[in-house]
Amino acid sequence: MRLFRCRNCGQTVFFENSICGNCGHALGYLARAQEMLTLTTQGDGYQRLRSRQRYRYCDNAEHQACNWLIPANSADRFCPACRFNQLIPDLSVAENLVQWQRMEAAKHRLFYTLIALGLPLHSYAEDPEHGLAFEFLPDPPGPGPRILTGHDEGLITINLAEADDAMREKFRTEMGEPYRTLLGHFRHETGHYFWNILLRDKGQLDGFRSIFGDETADYAEALQAHYQNGAPADWGQHYISAYAAAHPWEDFAESWAHYLHIVDTLETASAFGLRIHPSAGTHKLLRAEINFDPHKATAIDQLIASWLPLTVAVNSLNRSMGMTDLYPFTLAPQVIEKLGFIHTLVHNHHQPSKNKSFFENSGELT
pTM, whole model, 2 decimals? Predict the structure, then answer.
């Protein structure tokens, strides 16, 4: 994630900000330009500072769930990220509102990266057969089955309880996971979606199978075996996580999520000008100058060369604070090969020009 600044006073501002804490100017994010705009009030709307361009906020700003902008003359009510919502919870329930706001913060970060990578983005409304949509559902009252987070042919359902820190920690412990976050859920589930869009629907499965395995193995049986028996003892040599060992689909989704973790975190490190150069030891693998745009990296090796030193540094910082590792994963050579497959897949489908309709539908090209 980039750092942004208020164009009025120069104060550093962040992706979720809607007001500059220093000068009080309104702020809003414009997805097409990938810029945080500084705004002045103009009638019943807003005008970009030192410009005649006029904007209004997405309707979900009313619920403090979005700070993205729409051109004032757009007929659309929702921004490019919020247009993908198919079902949101009953916001008259205070708990639902707070949890949904947290969901939207994570989802908007997801879309920031998907847009920056130039991936094809189509909503259900645009393309019912191949589009993407989200439903945020609370568990039903009383005993009974809970809502399962998952993906089904473009529809991503996320249990609202995942936005509750205590509940998410409970789920994490029950599932034996070292890491469980809202943003991680979004990234993982979109991995399933993009597997469909970029591989299955394009008939490009041979390369996938040579690295991840045969996805035609019965999925339900594979998951049942995983939950009964656990991952193989040597899973760390072949998979990014124990869950990735359950089935090739989950291996791809887990690897996809980690690829997005790496790209977004390296961009943040670059924005802060981070340089990793340990005072103890001289091994070159622990050194990195993170001063590039990871969305435009030419090869996976460029990302990994910076990622490994960065994770050693941030894990060490967390331990100094008495906390668990920020990134509790190991990238074995076979895992890096899978990340490299995803890197190539993403860059072969980098198509910002073909996403024109994505912004046209929200009026951002007007």
Answer: 0.93
